[in-house]
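ok, trying the design again with the full structure, not the truncated one.
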């Protein structure tokens, strides 16, 4: 088992970075179990989540192909974090006939369960850091949920959210940009973001990311950060269509939000 790095909790949190270059090493079940247990130790709501450890190398290759991500192949652990109203339903059915899962919609439970799964993921990330491992969240869990459901033969009401990669760090990136504290921490009310705030944020982000060569290194993009964001967050007709499909699939799977 790897030695737990001796650092303060705050130090670990502040120095964590997303890692996109891993050295391929094996992770033992003992370490993985502690990391997942750390995830479970996050504040709990409905525990409507499941974590699928994608361990079989053929399965890892299939997920890597499906997500068009080579990084996946070098991770020491590939975890698919899912919303799981399947297990919750088994529990509720044994205690009442009139549970909320029978309603036409339950947006609060869906949103709070996504929030809860996020806490679990962050705890697993920080536990990985404590072991000296790096990690990366991949959103392809959700974007490719339909194909992942098929690949892993997931039952109804189990919905992939994110992939969490954990592995031996093969890079040590600098801090990435965040909005200033003054923008995100509001006191006794809400302070509207101004155009100056936006310009300041974009300028800071551009400076930080260009000094790392971030966009070129990871996205092979030669423009500015603002141009990159505009490109990535476009709401084109194609995006609209694929989101309609995604929404329909999520509802069919049992996410009644
Ligand atoms: C919900 C979520 C989804 C993410 N999806 C991806 C992804 O698909 N690919 C990726 O490279 N990074 C992904 N990330 C990581 C972010 O890009 C990363 O956290 C951000 O650039 C800030 O960098 P840092 O984590 O090093 O501070 C995701 C992060 C979150 C919270």
């Amino acid at each position: 088992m790897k030695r737990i790095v001796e650092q303060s909790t705050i130090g670990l949190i502040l120095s964590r970075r997303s890692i996109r270059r891993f050295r391929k090493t094996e992770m033992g079940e003992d370490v993985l179990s502690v990391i997942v247990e750390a995830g479970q130790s996050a504040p709990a709501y409905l525990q409507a989540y499941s974590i699928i450890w994608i361990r079989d190398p053929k399965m890892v290759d299939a997920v890597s192909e499906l997500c068009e991500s080579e990084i996946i192949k070098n991770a020491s652990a590939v975890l698919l974090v899912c919303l799981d109203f399947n297990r919750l339903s088994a529990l509720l059915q044994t205690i009442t006939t009139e549970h909320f899962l029978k309603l036409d919609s339950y947006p609060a439970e869906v949103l709070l369960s996504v929030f809860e799964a996020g806490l679990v993921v962050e705890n697993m990330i920080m536990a990985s850091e404590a072991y000296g491992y790096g990690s990366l969240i991949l959103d392809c869990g959700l974007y490719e949920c339909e194909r992942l459901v098929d690949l892993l033969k997931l039952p109804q009401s189990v919905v992939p959210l994110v992939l969490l990669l954990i592995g031996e760090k093969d890079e040590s990136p600098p801090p990435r940009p965040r909005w200033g504290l003054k923008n995100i921490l509001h006191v006794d009310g809400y302070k509207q973001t101004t155009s100056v705030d936006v310009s300041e944020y974009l300028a800071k982000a551009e400076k930080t990311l260009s000094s790392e060569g971030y966009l070129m290194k990871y996205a092979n993009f030669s423009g500015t950060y603002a141009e990159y964001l505009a490109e990535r967050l476009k709401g084109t007709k194609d995006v609209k269509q694929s989101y309609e499909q995604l929404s329909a699939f999520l509802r069919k799977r049992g996410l009644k939000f």
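Keeping the full-length input from now on. Strands lie at 22-23, 49-54, 77-84, 133-138, 158-169.
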